[in-house]
Amino acid sequence: MSGRTVTITEVARHAGVAVSTVSYVLSGKRAISADTRRRVLDSVRVLGYHPNAGARALASRRANVIALVLPLRAGMHVPVLMQFATSVVTAARQYDHDVLLLTADEGSDGIRRAAASALVDGLVLMDVELHDPRVPLLRRLAEPSVLIGFPADTTGLTCVDLDFARAGALCVEHLAERGHREVALLGAPAVVYERGTGFARRTREGFTEAVARHGLTGVALPCEETFEQVAATVEGLLAERPGLTGLVVHNEAAVNHVLGALRQHGRRVPHDVAVVAICPDDIAERSSPALTSVLIPAEEVARQAVRLLMDKLEGHTAPEGTLLEPRMTVRDSTSVVRS
Questions:
Q1: Do 183 and 211 contact (CB within 8 A), yes or no?
Q2: Other beta carbons less than 10 A from residue 288's beta carbon
Q3: Which domains are delineated in the chain?
Q4: pTM above 0.70, yes or no
């Protein structure tokens, strides 16, 4: 059969096994009996089957590469995404794995091609939507996967992330403890909510729930990324809510624009308006004044995701959901306690 390409289906038929069994023998992802493995490898040799990266897979049974699926789409703050990507690479190297970064927004097709290539042992996915179209495929793949983020239904999946609902609530609780009665959330750009991105929706839900629980007045608004857009949002917010004294910002690109817009309107932080951000520490610390913040723990989330994926590669059972407890650091932007 050297004159044409032999398919995996023909190998399975020749060996008298299912196609999935051939795949498992070649990838080493599941334990296969010695007799079945021998029959499959004999068929591979007789037919001259050459899967993508087949020689490597047969020799090592592992590619020692994981794929990080990170679509770079509108509304996503690239510096923070790169913190996650760098942390995944660092964590993977501790397990002697390299990382293949998939940044094109190809959805399920891109994942299917990566899995079929035999170049990766498993996948870590980011930018997870509540009704993510990639989820049905992940449940069918032989290759294990871990999601950084939570879809609405986690059945059959492994997910890890910061507890963003709790993070939103924690910000409100901090402002309520300091006597603020009217607060607002300036969240992600509108396109992020429209896609149903899980972390943005859950932060908003946690904020809204805590506002009601503490008897406050509050509003949650999307916030774009340029200074002009942020300034217009802040101007409209202050005009409609003159009693506003507390702001929660969940948009890393907009944090310093919000502070600048408040200064333009003569509002001092924290004396007139207290500001709490959900962002990496370096953004909060470099702001003026330094911002009280809930840390987005990119390194810890990435480390957990890679560990869970390695556990699955070794055949261990992983929990469906791992939520990291948010941690707040109090800085200058909420130092004034209102009577």
A1: yes
A2: 12
A3: 8-60 (1.10.260.40), 65-161+298-324 (3.40.50.2300), 164-296+328-334 (3.40.50.2300)
A4: yes
